[in-house]
Amino acid sequence: MAKAVDTEPKWYILHTYSGYEAIVKEDLLRLIENNNLQDSIVDVKIPTEQTIEEKANGKKKVVERKLLPCYVFIKMVYSNQLWYLVTNTRGVTGFCGPQGRPIPMKEDEIRKMRLEEFVVDADFKVGDRVSIDNGPLEGFVGTIREINDETQRAKVSIVMFGRQQDVEVEYVQMQKISPDAVEVPREEE
Question: What's this model's pTM, rounded to 2 decimal places?
Answer without folding.
Answer: 0.60
